[in-house]
Design goal:
233 residues; alpha/beta; Rossmann fold; six-stranded mixed beta sheet; 10 helices; 10 strands; binds adenosine-5'-triphosphate; ATP-binding; nucleotide-binding; Leucine/isoleucine/valine transporter subunit ATP-binding component of ABC superfamily
Length: 233
């Protein structure tokens, strides 16, 4: 579904990604874990077209997307839920969801998508006229996810959905990621909360200062001594 090869990204003189390669197969939940500054967000932004790599290639559903603009990549089936949620604060819940569907023209199916999302997140339905900026952190995370799902993606990229949320909400969000995945959406999940991420993922990559240092089955990595020491406390 998604294949990344030898990705190199610089911010000026800072070499943020140093030859990163990984892949996500159809139907999987794959997680990229790593400490602050390891390059997780940079990786997602490069894959989704917000940053351009100096070297390397990215392909989505066997089409090369290296250097393709972000909105075109969205149209090709990849949606991103950004770090810190970043919903449109001055718009209502309903309007935020509408924004997620802006590339779609299939009116009847769009209605169906609203219904699906409101079914998945009843809280959003109750509050569909509320301004997004006045929602709680957990509600905003659900809205950001709902907005991304409104584009009907084949693959969903999620940047640290657990950030700033109470453990009970983190559990709820992660349960939703599993549910969305079961309904056929492939997931690439970037997380600092390695324990939660590894417990729902099929496979995982460990990122340290712009390089993948370990990869494997997520459940096996949960029991890996180096991972336990460095990321699971
Ligand atoms: P966090 O979990 O803290 O968000 P991360 O793993 O997502 O961390 P990135 O945000 O991808 O890490 O950062 C990777 C490296 O690139 C860091 O050293 C960071 O300081 C640097 N970096 C990120 N954005 C920029 C930028 N706009 N300009 C310069 N350096 C940057």
């Amino acid at each position: 579904m998604l294949k990344v090869e030898n990705l190199n990204v610089y911010y000026g003189a800072i070499h943020a990604l140093k030859g990163l390669s990984f892949e996500v197969n159809k139907g999987e939940i794959v997680t990229l874990i790593g400490a602050n500054g390891a390059g997780k967000t940079t990786t997602l932004h490069t894959v989704s077209g917000l940053l351009k790599p100096t070297e390397g290639s990215i392909s989505l559903l066997d089409k090369t997307i290296t250097g393709v603009e972000a909105h075109k990549i969205l149209g090709m089936g990849m949606a991103q839920v950004p770090e810190g949620r970043r919903v449109f604060a001055k718009m209502t819940v309903q309007e935020n969801l509408e924004m997620g569907a802006f590339l779609r023209t299939d009116k009847a199916e769009i209605e169906e998508s609203y219904e699906n999302i409101y079914k998945k997140f009843p809280r959003l339905k109750e509050r569909r006229k509320q301004l997004a900026g006045t929602m709680s952190g957990g509600e905003q995370q659900m809205l950001a996810m709902g907005r991304a799902l409104m584009s009907k993606p084949d693959i969903l990229l999620m940047d640290e959905p657990s950030m700033g949320l109470a453990p009970i909400l983190v559990k709820e969000i992660f349960d939703t990621i599993v549910e969305v995945n079961k309904q056929g959406v492939t997931v690439l999940l970037v997380e600092q909360n390695a324990h939660m991420a590894l417990s729902i993922a099929d496979r995982a990559y460990v990122l340290e200062t712009g390089k993948i240092v370990l990869e494997g089955n997520a459940k096996e990595l949960l029991n890996h001594e180096d991972v336990k020491k460095a990321y699971l406390g």
